[in-house]
């Protein structure tokens, strides 16, 4: 499995849990891989203003009623990534949108510990790139921050910094309405357990093993910039230390 695709595990897993019943998610995903192209350099504020002022709206839905478009953002320690997908409820297939649907920026959100007000604006190139994919209005965005911010959250003073970083991230979406909106409960900081479980769900979904016997599932090793998750179905859960369940 290509490393660039592995970084999209979060968005695939979250969307599957949020939109699809289990009976749907057992089907393998059909997906095209996109390179981490550089993001557009034109002003995101100009584009956001055009969305607000355009009549009729600049972004016209080209999707039918059975399709659900969503954006997944994985904000890790070394950088932030955005990938765009469309799920078809009739065919039960998840596809990448276009040939260039994944984008990446550096540094990660934790780099803004001393300037948290800049955390949200650092994601603007990703959101701007998403607008260029001709997504429909009110497209939901799922953003999960991972180990970089988890490490930063140790200590009372640092927790305050993390709160300010996440507030800046939440506020940035206002510049992109009505094109984009946060999915319910997002953005948020994921726990290490959630990160591991999301990766396991996504990998087994892609491989067509989700919903089958536990012995048919695939274990997942996710080695990130600041954390590592090993997730698998244990033959005897009691032998797994409590802190790792």
UniProtKB/TrEMBL annotation:
Gene Ontology terms for molecular function: ATP binding; nucleoside diphosphate phosphatase activity
Keywords associated with the record: ATP-binding, Hydrolase, Nucleotide-binding
The keyword ATP-binding appears for this protein: yes
GO annotations of cellular component type: membrane
GO terms of biological process kind: nucleoside diphosphate catabolic process
UniProt keyword ATP-binding, yes or no: yes
Highest taxon, organism lineage: Eukaryota
Active site positions, chain numbering: 195
Binding site for ATP: 225-229
Gene3D superfamilies with a match to the protein in the record: 3.30.420.40, Exopolyphosphatase. Domain 2
Protein family membership: Belongs to the GDA1/CD39 NTPase family.
Protein name: Apyrase
């Amino acid at each position: 499995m290509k490393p660039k695709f592995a970084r999209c595990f979060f968005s695939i897993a979250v969307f599957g849990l949020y939109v699809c019943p289990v009976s749907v998610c057992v089907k393998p995903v059909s997906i095209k891989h996109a390179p981490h192209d550089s993001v557009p350099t034109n002003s995101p504020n100009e584009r956001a203003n055009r969305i607000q002022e355009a009549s009729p709206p600049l972004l016209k839905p080209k999707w039918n009623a059975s399709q659900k478009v969503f954006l997944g953002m994985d904000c890790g320690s070394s950088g932030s990534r955005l990938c765009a997908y469309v799920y078809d409820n009739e065919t039960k297939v998840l596809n990448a949108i276009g040939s260039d649907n994944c984008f990446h920026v550096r540094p990660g959100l934790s780099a803004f510990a001393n300037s948290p007000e800049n955390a949200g604006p650092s994601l603007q190139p990703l959101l701007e790139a998403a607008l260029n994919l001709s997504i429909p209005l009110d497209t939901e965005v799922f953003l999960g921050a991972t180990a970089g911010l988890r490490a930063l959250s140790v200590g009372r003073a640092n927790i305050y910094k993390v709160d300010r970083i996440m507030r800046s991230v939440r506020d940035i979406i206002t510049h992109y309405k009505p094109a984009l909106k946060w999915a319910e409960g997002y953005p948020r900081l994921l726990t290490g357990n959630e990160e591991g479980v999301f990766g396991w769900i996504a990998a087994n979904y892609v491989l067509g093993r989700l919903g089958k016997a536990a012995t048919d599932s695939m274990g997942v090793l996710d080695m990130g910039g600041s954390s590592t998750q090993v997730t698998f179905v244990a033959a005897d859960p009691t032998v797994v230390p409590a802190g790792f369940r």
